[in-house]
Amino acid sequence: MELKVYNINGSETGRTINLDDSIFAIQPNDHAIYLDVKQYLADNRQGTHKSKERSENAHSTRKLKRQKGTGGARSGDLKSPVFVGGGTIFGPKPRDYRFKLNVKVKRLARRSALSYKVADNALTVLENFTLETPKTKKMIEILNNLKLSDKKSLIVVEKPNNFVSLSARNLQNVRVVNVTELNTYDIMNATNIVLCEGSLAEIGRVLATK
């Protein structure tokens, strides 16, 4: 599959680039995408939720009324879960939500997500560029030239570029990642993917079928 290569002015460079069909044109596996996104979201959960149980409440242990003869239900102290302010029954406890996912499944998920974007014409190849200083205005100009200013965009660069990242940091709908940070959640969450030309070889190396 061939795609045109654009420059930061939004113009065609006159060059095309061949995309690896084993990465960008496979039959997407929806279940692999689901598992990888689920793991990504689980990894981001803090798991620090906690409610106090009966033994942790700071109430008196005095029995409120006698056991029998009042005509009402039996009750113990104020720590009982049946009273307002009492302990919580089966409340949340701190836990780790992370789970293991095979590397091959994660690669398949990312290849599937990229294939979806290519099929939807939501992938743009941009020639390599650098910024001399971090300028949010310059990044807005580039997105306007590419007609992506109103879309949620994911820009994939070959290696970490501080000036590019800082230029996009204050833009709500733009995220800049390098190839090693590329994940299924970000791909599926973006409306359009912008791949810098130099990142394609690295993507091929990382996501190659092994």
| CATH architecture descriptor text of the largest domain | 3-Layer(aba) Sandwich
Helical fraction equals 25-40%
Give the C-alpha Rg: 27 Å
The CATH superfamily of the largest domain appears as Ribosomal protein L4/L1
Instruction: Please state the overall shape, judged from the principal axes of the Cα atoms.
Output: elongated
User: Total number of helical segments?
Assistant: 7
In CATH, what is the class of the largest domain? Alpha Beta
Spatial separation of the terminal alpha carbons: 21 Å
By helix and strand content, what is the structural category? alpha/beta
The domain count comes to 2
Order of helices and strands: EEHHHEHEHEHEH
* Biggest beta sheet summary: 6 strands, mixed
Strand order of the largest sheet: 2-1-3-6-4-5
Describe the structure.
With 210 residues, the protein is of the alpha/beta class. The chain has 2 domains: 2-45 and 98-207, 3-Layer(aba) Sandwich (Ribosomal Protein L4, Chain: A), CATH 3.40.1370.10; 47-96, no CATH class. The protein contains 7 helices and 6 strands. Strands 2-1-3-6-4-5 form a 6-stranded mixed beta sheet. Helix 2 crosses helix 3. The two termini are 21 Å apart. The mean pLDDT is 93.
Q: What would the keywords be for this entry?
A:
6 strands; alpha/beta; 210 residues; single chain; Ribosomal Protein L4, Chain: A
